[in-house]
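[Meeting: bench + compute handoff]

Bench side (C.D.) handed over the final construct sequence. Compute side (W.E.) agreed to return the predicted structure before the next meeting so the bench team could plan truncations. Sequence as handed over:
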Amino acid sequence: MEILKITLIGLFFGTFGTTIGGIIGIMLKKPSNKLLSFILSLASGLMMSIICFDLIPEAIEIGNMFYTIFGIVSGIVTIILCDILVQKKFNKDIREEQSSLLKAGIIISMGLAIHNFPEGLAIGTGVGASLKLGISLAIAICFHDIPEGIFQSRHQWKYAR
């Protein structure tokens, strides 16, 4: 029963933030590049603060420094590999401007898909460590996902028309 509760908490907070962000993104008619830049910076800053002040210290406390550094390096290497894979797949087949936008969109999509898995792991292990940590991570991830949803909806809406 506990696993079901943790799963539902993660599912709710993970989808709620992105959904709210998507709705806001669609409601914004023509956001400026400055606004989109601010939204992405806000999301990345929020996530970086969660990583630096909550997740890394908790990971070191629960495990040890080696596993923490190994996890960080594994994440970095995964995104680098995704970038290399996309670079090889989309060489000069498309115009340079379209190619760079397509590459960025694919890498962002792959990165988001990959990073949603650790988000769920973070919430699950956070609840396992303490209910307070799990709920605070879930709420922070929800707020982090709102700008993500705004950016995704604006990016997809721009190319759907």
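W.E. noted at the follow-up: The two ends are 45 Å apart (CA to CA). C.D. will use this when planning the next construct.
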